[in-house]
Specification:
3 helices; Mago nashi protein; 2 domains; 7 strands; globular; seven-stranded antiparallel sheet; 173 residues
């Protein structure tokens, strides 16, 4: 084997070794996010409620808000106009293990493989419909994360938002 052929082979191998893992990681991000059966130690739940301006919201799930539940069971909440996925609210309370488990159960019950669950690649750039309420729900589990947009009438997403609002003491009266 000549020196130039040996160098060419070496360069090709180095390039393949460098490019192949990056290409494979890029391909793996196209896989559908699935929730594990039990809450992993890195489970994070974030939800943003988008609603058109209303004088008298009919329920806490109709109030603009941003909720984040962290792995240590800290619930963060910001309520009111301007709530968005880029808001990082102050801590509101620490959830009990039962409250955290209930939120996990509600999150796990949301079907992510239906037409109502629209996968969102960039939550911080999400533009909700201006005239209809919607929810943006972000999941992190087992070092994987994904965001989904749901219409506000989606029953499982609504149940999760109602539970978050209740735990954050959101009231409409």
């Amino acid at each position: 084997m000549t020196l130039s052929r040996t160098l060419t082979t070496l360069v090709v191998r180095i390039l393949l070794a460098a490019i192949l893992p990056v290409w494979m990681v890029g391909c793996s991000t196209n896989q559908r996010f699935t929730m594990p059966d039990t809450a992993p130690g890195d489970f994070v739940l974030a939800a943003t409620v988008f609603t058109p301006p209303q004088e008298h919201p009919d329920s806490p799930a109709s109030v603009p808000a941003r909720y984040i539940v962290e792995p240590d069971a800290t619930l963060r909440a910001a309520v009111g106009p301007g709530s968005s996925p880029v808001i990082y609210p102050s801590p509101t309370r620490t959830l009990t293990s039962e409250q955290f488990a209930r939120l996990w159960t509600l999150a796990h019950a949301i079907p992510l493989d239906t037409d109502d669950a629209r996968s969102i690649n960039s939550p911080e750039n999400f533009s909700p419909p201006a005239d209809t309420p919607s929810f943006l729900i972000e999941f992190r589990a087992n070092e994987s994360q994904q965001a989904f947009a749901f219409p506000a009438n989606h029953p499982q997403a609504r149940a999760l938002i109602d539970a978050l609002a209740d735990l954050a003491w959101v009231r409409t009266d």
